[in-house]
Amino acid sequence: MLTVTGFLSLTTCLVVAGEPLRLVTFNVQCLAAPGTRATRIPRYRWDSARKNHLERVANVIETLQPDILNLLEVTSNEAVEHLVQILHDKGLTEYRGFHVESGDKFTGFDVALVTRLAPDAVEGQSIRCILSPPGDLTWRANYSFVDEAGKLQEKETAVARHAIYYFQVRGIRIGLLGLHLKANPNDRYSNSRRTAESLICQRIIQKEIVDRGYLPIVLGDLNDYDPDVPDLDDTRNTQTTVLANLKNYDGGSKEAELFNPALLIERLADRATSHWDRNENNMADSEDVFTMIDYVLLPKAFQSAVQRMFVCRVSDLKTSDHWPVVVDVDLSRILKN
Length: 337
Hints:
By secondary structure, the chain is α+β, with helices and mostly antiparallel strands. The chain has a single domain, classed as Deoxyribonuclease I, Chain A. The protein is built from five helices and 16 strands. Helix 1 packs across helix 2. It is globular, with a radius of gyration of 19 Å. The N terminus is likely disordered.
């Protein structure tokens, strides 16, 4: 069921000439509203801790002031409402939140949108999650893997955690696919399932974004490595074609349609977007894993328009085991090309 926080009386005029469009994706690690238990794996048991978590996430948003924020691991519409209310209390009243239930019934994690721009309504909805029932491969795919016993397993999957939303900003139509793909890039089952998810995403990008006349942007926690962008941890390399599939979503084209602007981050140390606290001591130490698994993939037409990209380190493990990925796009450069 679709639920929307706030009103649709926003204006695209908030992005004016000379100001870049700021895109941010942030996995906030199980964002829950006080008084709710919308996930099987709650991060906090007490409402006081949930309120503090919401405050910390709001502080990050206040610091970055994104135009479009792709928010991952949100557990309910109530969590989005609480977060937006905090922003309004801070005086950031231009922000609105949009939430749609995902198909992930195990974790209860959804992909949400917080924005100060007015999204386009497509099929009467400002944010969408498209799923088909088991056996209907319209938005599903088959995959197989060899299990630990050496037996071939065959399964079917959907892209359970995603959201699609659209904008027109200074005459440019962009359609965004927010993703949270299957975790664990070193596991055979997970890799097979994530690869199948990426193939479904190709269809979503083509049919639901490109065919509607929008330029596609893919952003979120892809839980995989990009072979085209060296990672801080050189021992962790992709075992899949997930990033390649997402960049080259058009099966009839040999060249990738999307690119990863993370190459603009010069220091490898600054490219990590996630912190796996492997020994669970709530500290950053030598036993932990720091890698880039969160991305903003842009159309090739945006290559000359990326003004800046960085991973924002204003938060710690209290807030999330991920950091926000920030991209500033100078739309005037696109209009000139």
